[in-house]
Amino acid sequence: MSNPTLRNEPHVYHITGLSRDEIVELCAMIHSAGTEPEDSKWPPSLGLFNSIVVTLTYLRRNRVQEELAETYGTSQPTVSRAISAITPLIKKVLAPYVATADELDERCQYLLDGTLLPCWSWAAHPELYSGKHKTTGMNVQVACTLAGKLAWISDPIEGSRHDNHCLTESGALVTLDPLTGSPTKDTSATR
Is the pTM higher than 0.70? Predict the structure, then answer.
């Protein structure tokens, strides 16, 4: 008979995109960031680690909160509280690591492309609907090196906007020379 603890333990990398060690490091970053008492409102029944896993799964996989509640043996309101508490904390502790367009290495060539990050179907927000993808979402521009290493991600723009508009709005063309894929000397764009 297999160990029930290991059998019930979720494979966090496949559902969150982070390894167990990276999630533990994220937990440590949240604790060391000097969070205020009101920031520590994640549900005690889940704890910090599982609240982070639930939040990352929700953000990465767009899973329904009821499914997550069933997976973690809790209620949908508990999952909702975890997501509401953890999302701003992740943003707070990871903000210093987010590269801006003007920080792209001028000695490197980059590949730049846009993608739609799907979200719930928001009938009241037609600006999120992408006719190309036939779903709602936010458009982001992504720059990576020729070796495939992620170098930069733009701020999101409504999914209804064309890739060319999103590329212009991202500021990457101010920083990158579109003919060579290398940064230009004018690095006044930030994001």
Answer: no
- Please name which of 128, 115, 126, 107 lies closest in space to residue 154, comparing C-alpha atoms: 115
Helix or strand or coil: residue 20? helix
Alpha-carbon gap, residue 12 to 118, rounded angstroms = 21
Query: Kindly report the CA angle at 86 between 83 and 88, in degrees rounded to 5?
Result: 110
| Tally of CB atoms within 10 A around 6 | 7
Question: Two tokens at 138?
Answer: 């936010």
The C-alpha atoms of residue 93 and residue 7 are separated, in whole angstroms, by 32
Helix axis angle for 47-61 and 76-94, nearest 10°, is 90
| Beta-bridge partner residues of 48 | none
| 172 CB-contact burial (10 Å; exposed 0-12 / middle 13-18 / buried 19+) | buried
Q: Which residues pair with 113 in a beta bridge?
A: 142
Backbone torsions φ then ψ of 14, nearest 5 degrees: -70, -25
Q: How far apart are CA 187 and CA 102, in angstroms?
A: 5
User: For residue range 35-73, what is the model confidence (pLDDT) as tens digits?
Assistant: 666 666 889 999 999 999 999 999 888 789 999 999 999
Q: In the chain, what are the domain boundaries?
A: 4-97, 101-175
